[in-house]
Amino acid sequence: MNGWKLARRLATMLVVLFGVSVLTYGLIFVTPGDPARTILTQQMGGQTPSQEAVEQFRAAKGLDDPFPVQYARWVGNAVRGDLGQSYYSDQAVTAMIATRLPNTIALGVASMLVAVAIAVPAGIASAVEPGSQTDYAAQFGALVGVSMPNFWLGYLLIIVCSLWLDLFPVAGAGGLEYLVLPALTLGSGMAAVIARLVRTAMLDVLDDAHIRTARSKGLRERIVVYKHALRNALVPVVTIIGLQLSYVLNGAVVVEVVFQRPGLGTLLVDAIFARDYPVVQGVTLLIGVIFVVTNFAVDLTYSRLDPRIDFGGEPT
Amino acid sequence: MVDITRRQTLFGLATGVSGLGGYWALGGDWVSGDDGAPSGDDAEADTITVGSPWTPDSLDPVVNGWLWRRISVLEPLLTVDYDATVAPGLATDWRRVDDVTWEFDLREGVTFHDGTDLTATTALPSLRRAFESSSMASVPVESVEAADDQTVVIRTDAPFSPLPAHCTRGTTCLVSPAAIADDGSVSEPIGTGPFQFERWRQGSSITATATPDYHGVPPRVETLIYEGITDDQTRRLKLENDELDMARILPNETADTLESRANLTAHTYEIPRARFLVFDVDSSPFSDRRVRSAVMHAVDRDAIVENILSGLGSAAVGPFPSNITDWAVDDLEPYEYNPERARSLLSEAGWEQDGETRTRDGESLSVSIWTYNSRPKLPTIAQVIQRQLQEVGFDVEVTLMESATIKEQAKSGSFDAVLWSSSVLWYPDPDRLSDFVHSEATTMFSGFENETVDRLLEEARRTSDRDERFERYAEVQRIVHREVPIGWLTYYTNVVGTRADIDGYRPHPTESCYHLENVTRQR
To answer: What is the widest separation between alpha-carbon atoms in chain B?
Structure first.
């Protein structure tokens, strides 16, 4: 990669992030529901605020300004690193994100590990002997994994592993023991998707000429599968793992609620329901950054896995 | 080449694992250090852990005072008694000096958790801050002054007899002047309660410890942990797994299961919260009082309580449940379940049966009921109402929307009916009725306008005498009952699960405070 390509890439990222911020600000702005009303309702313990209260709040937070003015004010502060304060709690958005991000990262990394640890061996096992009992078992498992709703699997794991077997605590954000069940819940859904892809990719590759060559050289099957086939099958798999990031953030909302983990998912959903614009904007922007960076990283990985792919996209 | 892949994979794995290891080594919390979970039986016996649906989002009494008051960290000037009346708090006595002037005598010998004495001077900053906040904007306070060392004087713009009731609200809880920063923000809840703030894990839990030398009866446990757990099943599972001593607001249907466990107890108690239908009295068909009454006769409220609320709760008659508050008027004649009567009322109003749905002048009796699902059971109840109204000739569509959207659309345009749930006494004063039926002060949206009701509510708001106020609020309840801009359906019963060895817990009807300072654990 050279400097010019990197700069072009960074410029694209900025354009994407700008687009994301305009879109989210615009979308939440046209969503019915007045932030003053919803936030005051929360501050009053669920009671409906009076008209005076709503007007005072709107004036205090600058909500009476037209959309472009509000957005410009937000962008002006954001480029200086100030994401503003929550309308609800007056806390700095950056601080709110900072306290929750570690929980979400831990959940994301752990569930991804679970997913890969289950999916890659299962996918390979199915592909090596298609139509065998192992294959059917793995495919059936994948079907169950994809179909099972997260919250349901979460409760199931809690009942079995916490109440019956007494292995892990039910819920909470604490040490590693609190991470196991949420990671299994979120990871198993992803594992199902990844396993099916590993299987398909492996089946494709195993039919390739270079595999026949490797076999005819008399290499042991294990070497053929793991050294020659798997590596070539990894390109689509890495892509899907990158794309599964969206699944992590989606799934995190449910898993964070069931397992009582303060994270980005719950922060975002609560903020959307409360119409807490600054928090919604801050979290969306961060998610945008994570996506763009991940995609970039995935692209870089391609060129390491397959030298024919240049990260700029042009063949070398 | 193959080696690089493997190295990359191993590196990736190692990064992940060491990252998780680091996370664990830091106690699983990169931000606020240890998680404070006590271990061992002795420590446990001195700790009460309570789980509730609301996550602690702020340390500021203006934002989250109702929560800090519930867990006895902050205290307001006045409190709510078990009979839902105003009772002494940090003020031992209060009186109305003239129409717009109130005096509050502060309790002697009270210190804030930072050692500052409670005097009129130290009470002023947080009281002024509270009355200036948006959520108190409907309370017409003009000034808050100190008359002498122990007397606070509050003046209002207009005669306002519900003032003491508003002085029980969480927003008005007192914090030490030291807790209020120069920019007016509150960074620590330094209050006067039996528990003092120790640690806050953002979005997750609060730890508080017994206040040494508390001015009242000292707490019977050393440590109180409050956990915000949004999901009701998770609260219940944590209770069953001994991770909570008390799980608040559980689904009605869990009460029996909890009772059947030897180590758990279910506390069920009625609270002054109601489910009700708000009719749009400005648009057809509910602009006709007979059509609104027909709905009330067509809906079988007892069946709703029995089948959907697992028998917990009761059919509502007026806004106030009479076994909780004396403000309920007891001479209202309940709308009995009587589909025949409903049918004849509709015919009287000109809606004639024509096939399945009634019509009038070519317009069919089609209505839409809006409700929301952030309160469990409302959508199910809406479906039951739908079916029961169809029996008498309505064509009903149930629409689920977000509660904020409903409020906005119902306020700005026309609608048919909204199924809503709300507390009817969240500050202990019947002036709350203004929110429902006053033509201008209302926060509901029926569009109901009745001069007599407005006059009675305004008079009652000015008058101090309890009997005179009661007469007026009673009359308002009678008129509203007759006119049905709002159809009261059922009251709420809360289910709180505790471990069976928890002693001394007494549910508070308005839930203004959990009173965990009275709770102990049998050894």
So the answer is: 92
Cα–Cα distance, B386 to B67 (Å, whole number): 37
Give the closest residue to B133 by CA, choosing from A263, A57, A145: A57
Euclidean distance between CA atoms A110 and A115, whole angstroms: 9
pLDDT of res. B454? 95
> Which tokens in the block code for residue A30?
């046209």
Taking Cα atoms as reference points, which of B180, B163, B167, B188 lies closest to residue B96? Answer: B163
The angle at the Cα of B72, spanning B67 to B78, to the nearest 5 degrees, equals 90
Asked if residue B304 lies in contact with residue B383, where contact means CB atoms within 8 angstroms, the answer is no
CA distance A194 to A215: 27
How many angstroms separate the CA of residue A57 from the nearest CA in chain B? 6
Cβ neighbours of B181 (radius 10 Å): 10
pLDDT at B202 over 50: yes
Count of C-beta atoms within a 10 Å radius of residue A213: 12
Residue B246 dihedral angles phi and psi, to the nearest 5°:
-145, 130
- Residues B449-463 have a mean pLDDT of 95
Phi, psi (5° rounding) for residue B223?
A: -130, 140
CA distance B31 to chain A (A): 6
Please give the backbone phi and psi of residue B357, each rounded to the nearest 5 degrees, phi first.
Answer: -110, 140
By C-alpha distance, which of A146, A167, A147, A163 is closest to A155? Answer: A163
State the pairing for strand pair B151-156/B141-148: antiparallel
- Specify the DSSP class assigned to residue B179: G
pLDDT at position B428 over 50: yes
Which whole-number Å values give the CA distances from B196 to A89, B67, B212, B451, B503, in the listed order?
Answer: 21, 14, 9, 49, 22
pLDDT (0 to 100) of residue B1: 36
Residues of A in contact with B409 (CB under 8 A): 32
* Chain A contact set for B407 (CB, 8 A): 37, 48
Find the CB nearest B204 among A155, A158, A173. A173
A49-104: pLDDT as tens digits: 888 888 888 888 888 888 889 888 888 898 888 999 999 888 899 999 999 999 99
In sequence order, what are the beta bridge partners of B199?
A: B207
Q: How many CB atoms lie within 10 A of CB A273?
A: 16
- What is the reported pTM? 0.87
User: Please, which residues bridge with residue B346 across strands?
Assistant: none
Place of tokens 């028998």: B311
Residues A119/A120/A122/A128 CA torsion (nearest 10 deg) = 150
Pairs from A16-20 (Cβ < 8 Å, separation ≥ 24)? A16/A288, A16/A292, A17/A285, A17/A288, A17/A289, A17/A292, A20/A284, A20/A285, A20/A288
Structural domains of chain A, ranges and CATH numbers in brackets = 24-82 (no CATH), 101-305 (1.10.3720.10)
- For residue B467, with 0-12 CB atoms within 10 Å meaning exposed, 13-18 middle and 19 or more buried, which class applies? exposed
Q: Does B57 touch chain A (CB under 8 A)?
A: yes
pLDDT at B37: 42
pLDDT tens, residue by residue, B356-388? 899 999 899 999 999 998 888 999 999 999 999
Helix (H, G, I), strand (E, B) or coil at B45: helix
Closest Cβ–Cβ partner in B13, B28, B426 for A47: B426
pLDDT band at B5 (very low <50, low <70, confident <90, very high): very low
With left for phi above 0 and alpha for psi between -120 and 50, is residue B516 left, alpha or beta?
Answer: alpha
Average pLDDT over residues B23-47: 47
Answer yes or no: is pLDDT of A246 > 80: no
Instruction: Determine contact, residues B512/B70, Cβ cutoff 8 Å.
Output: yes
Rounded to 10°, the helix A180-206/A93-128 angle is 40
